[in-house]
Give the backbone structure.
Amino acid sequence: MRTEVVRLDPRRFATRIDNVPIGLHTIGNDRGIAVAVTNYGARILQIVVPDREGRPGDIAQGYESIEQVLGGQPSMGAFIGRYANRIAARAFEIDGEVHVLTVNETVTDPARPRRSTLHGGTRGSRHRSFAVTRVAPDSLRMEVRFRDGEDGFPGDLAVDVEYSVTGEDELVITYEAVAGARATVANFTVHTFFNLCGDPGATVGPTRLVIPATNVLEVDSALLPTGSLRAVEGTPLDFRRSRAIESRIDIACDLLAAGDGYDHYYVIDQAVPGELVLHARAYDPRSGRVLDVRSTEPGIQFYSGNGLDGRRSRDIGKGGVVYGRRTAFCLEPSHYPDSVHHPAFPTTVLAAYERYRGEIRYRFSTDRI
């Protein structure tokens, strides 16, 4: 098992993209937590966390140069906006105006055809350069501005995101968005690819997961919501009690077939708008590491790394490690996908000049007593 931590070289990230200086920025605490971020996509490249024996390990997949980032998995580690997850490829209305978005996800596989706007389109935040300011040794603030009409989205939208590492071993991500003179839609998340064992090329199958959700969003073969909820009771999607990711991932189930594994939005039972509640807990028995995910969002997307397949160069990461199938999982708190087409879902519409604030907290610990 590969457990050494690759030292990232800031010189390999120093460039300009869209006339914005790009670099490598590291924050951390004095308890062994270190997080490396590039302001291209406000992207988390590395999270170093001790295991149960106190040995440091890298628990986030990522890349070790800006060239690798540009040629790699576009969502890996990125802050996602202006609209996280999928929007169906058909028109929607806000205040009587019709909007048609750029389609950037097209899958022609007859078993899983797909046409949608994924993670904000071709100019979503994962493809954008953020202005960055170091607030403190343990905190970074990054800013990006979306313009009216980009990828078909209406309205200007100013987004600020701050990453901080606390003395309580938390990575805290706070984000705030302010609409311009026209109403728009907004939905955000962080797309970290986790592997808690510290070997980024090892399967995450043994990782045990808890998600306190009675229901998931029912999806069609294109992974787009139908508008209905599906109870997890009696299905392989039930993580209300701790279960290994691999324990039921290959059971025959229409929802699992749609995603070729887990790629589903869980509606958190105790979610309260604006309040931090537990969305998920992951535990790796090999390393003893525990990850608690808390958020102010109404639900969370759980993705089991089904699209990683070791293809060069997209899935070659730090230290030349191959990111193969299901070698990472993602836990992405956000609003519901495709809310613009489902009035019963919590709204993602921001009125003119309206402000939205959200927060995600990753807390790291171990089973060491």
Summary: The domain at 10-366 is CATH 2.70.98.10 (Beta-galactosidase; Chain A, domain 5). The chain has one domain: 10-366. The longest strand covers residues 355-366.
